[in-house]
Amino acid sequence: VQMVESGGGLAQSGGSLRLSCAASGFRFRVYAMAWFRQAPGKEREFVARITWSGGSTNYADSVKGRFIISRDNAKNTLYLQMNSLKPEDTALYSCAKGKTAMVDTLEYDYSGRGTQVTVSS
User: Fold this and answer.
1) Helices (H), strands (E): how many in the chain?
2) What Cα–Cα distance (Å) separates residue 80 from each residue in 12, 41, 69?
3) Which residues contact 100 (CB under 8 A, 6 or more apart)?
4) Are 56 and 4 in contact (CB under 8 A)?
5) Any residues with CB less than 8 A from the CB of 112 and at least 6 apart, and which?
6) Angle at 45 between CA 9 and CA 68, to 5 degrees
7) Quick one: DSSP state of residue 29?
8) Under a CB-based contact definition with an 8 Å cutoff, are residues 97 and 36 in contact?
9) Fewer Cβ neighbours under 10 Å: the N or C end of the chain?
10) Hey, which residues does 113 pair with through a beta bridge?
11) Interatomic CA distance for residues 39 and 97, integer angstroms
């Protein structure tokens, strides 16, 4: 299992970034996926999840209405479109793979190394 995030960088407050997570080594299309983030000195927190079918999504309250999670099963890639960025969005963002195939689980067993997002005020 391998997941490689990209697309992070420096953005201004109010700006946008699009993160990608390229997955390999497993049948991407049958697993729920999620994004998590961890800011310096803070616990890792849930950001967004998408069902294995792609038919349903959920978001943390802190990003609802600003971030959009999506997936392209043909490309084995997970995305996170981040709009109206705030300085408090600054964190290391990583994608995570659901633990069980064809189950919209809340448990995840693998994560990528992450991509850094820094939002300046």
Assistant:
1) 0, 11
2) 17, 23, 5
3) 31, 107
4) no
5) 2, 3, 4, 5, 21, 94, 95, 96
6) 60
7) G
8) no
9) C
10) none
11) 20
**N residues, the chain:** 121
Give 62-118 pLDDT, tens digit per residue: 999 999 999 999 999 999 999 999 999 999 999 999 999 988 888 999 999 999 999
Place of tokens 């490689």: 4
Q: Which residues contact 98 (CB under 8 A, 6 or more apart)?
A: 31, 32, 33, 34, 52, 104, 105, 107, 108, 109
Q: What is the sign, positive or negative, of the torsion defined by CA atoms of 41, 11, 7, 51?
A: positive
Return the structure tokens found at 14.
């109010």
Per the listing, tokens 């992450």 go with: 114
Dump the DSSP string for 53-82: TS--EEE-TTTTTTEEEEEETTTTEEEEEE
* Residue 25 per-residue DSSP state: S
State the pLDDT confidence band at 54, using cuts at 50, 70 and 90: confident
